UniProtKB/TrEMBL annotation:
Signal peptide: none annotated. It comes from Methylococcus capsulatus. This is MoxR family ATPase. Residues 44-188 form the AAA+ ATPase domain. InterPro entries: AAA+_ATPase, ATPase_AAA-3, CbbQ/NirQ/NorQ/GpvN, ChlI/MoxR_AAA_lid, ClpA/B, P-loop_NTPase. It comes from the Bacteria.
Length: 342
């Protein structure tokens, strides 16, 4: 492919991506930053976890993304009695009074499945998390003596952080498979809150989503354009050293002179960001640069995705884990401030 043709192709895809973002923002107001990060994850080919209080728009956001992304969409609700086979197949007595086996939500559409939404994933048992882990990592599952592949699949999940009873914490290995973990909050802008309360169009979600243009992105072509984006955005040696310093600071923040109130910094970190984690961070940063119309990385591209790609990959010692919500943002802000940007 010539340089001019590649440039034209990337510019065309960038316009499509921005149109996708504008369309989703019509249905979900006040969540511009999470929507931008989901767009980044789509083109970086990463899975996304949403976390937030009840009723802040997580499900509506993901349904809007699925509609505008196109392809087959399936959704499953996390429950304590959900078993792995419930994702793959289901059995029942048919109209002839005989047992029958039909494909479950993962297999029903074959390789056309582009979006799989796991609602309240932390209500499902660890056995279900294990199956999800394999699908996320390998885009494949074994069933009925054969392998099924899902080349276009991206998984979105949400986690209810309010209720703790009959829930199961997502293991660190599974959390590391998610490229991003996005926190969804109620909009702070009074005008947006007023719209959510009094504008009838936001009260009927099904009708609201029907107004969105379906299939704005040709989902079957995204796996082909994604590596082109990665190869087209350059990282200077200085930028690479900066990214390496950020990674090291997530593992040994005390070495960078970072202090957090009464925290013993030598005991805070149980495990810093993984190699897979920082790889995903850089993939996301390159897409952020492309969306901003550049073919080179700047520190702000990393800053834009640092919290979302790294925060859930830093694990604290148990004595500090209960204070995670208060400490993680302060830690990440401190790392950005202590590590000198080029």
């Amino acid at each position: 492919m010539s340089a001019d043709l590649k440039h034209t192709q990337l510019a065309d895809w960038r316009q499509r991506a921005l149109a996708f973002e504008r369309e989703v923002c019509k249905a979900v107001i006040g969540l511009d930053r999470p929507i931008r990060h989901i767009l980044i994850a789509v083109f970086a080919r990463g899975h996304v976890m949403l976390e937030g209080d009840v009723g802040v728009g997580k499900t509506t956001l993901l349904r809007a993304v699925a509609r505008c992304l196109g392809g087959a969409y399936e959704r499953v609700e996390g429950t304590i009695d959900l078993m792995p086979n419930d994702l793959v197949y289901h059995t029942y007595i048919n109209e002839h009074g005989k047992p029958q086996v039909d494909p479950g939500p993962v297999l029903k559409h074959g390789e056309d499945l582009s979006v799989f939404f796991f609602n309240e994933v932390n209500r499902a048992r660890p056995q279900v998390h294990s199956l999800l882990l394999r699908i996320m990592a390998e885009h494949a599952v074994s069933a009925f003596n054969r392998e099924y592949f899902f080349p276009y699949l991206q998984i979105f999940a949400d986690r209810n952080r309010v209720e703790k009873e009959e829930t199961f914490e997502i293991p660190s290995a599974a959390r590391d498979r998610f490229m991003m973990e996005l926190h969804i909050e109620t909009p702070a802008d009074p005008a947006l809150r007023c719209a959510l309360m009094f504008d009838p169009k936001f009260h009927d979600v099904d009708r609201l989503l029907d107004t969105l243009t379906p299939g704005l992105l040709p989902y079957r072509e995204i796996p082909q354009i994604a590596p082109v984006i990665q190869q087209s955005v350059m990282a200077s040696e200085t930028l690479q050293r900066y990214a390496l310093d950020l990674w090291e600071a997530t593992r040994h923040p005390a070495a960078y002179g970072l202090k957090l109130g009464d925290v013993d910094m030598d005991r805070l970190i149980l495990a810093g960001a993984s190699a897979r984690g920082v790889s995903m961070m850089m993939r996301a940063a390159r897409v952020a640069a492309w969306l901003d119309g550049r073919d080179y990385l700047v520190p702000e591209d990393i800053h834009d995705v640092f919290r979302e790609t790294i925060g859930h990959r830093i694990f604290f010692n148990p004595v500090y884990e209960l204070r995670r919500t208060a400490l993680i943002d302060e830690l990440l802000d401190g790392i950005r401030q202590r590590v000198a940007a080029p």
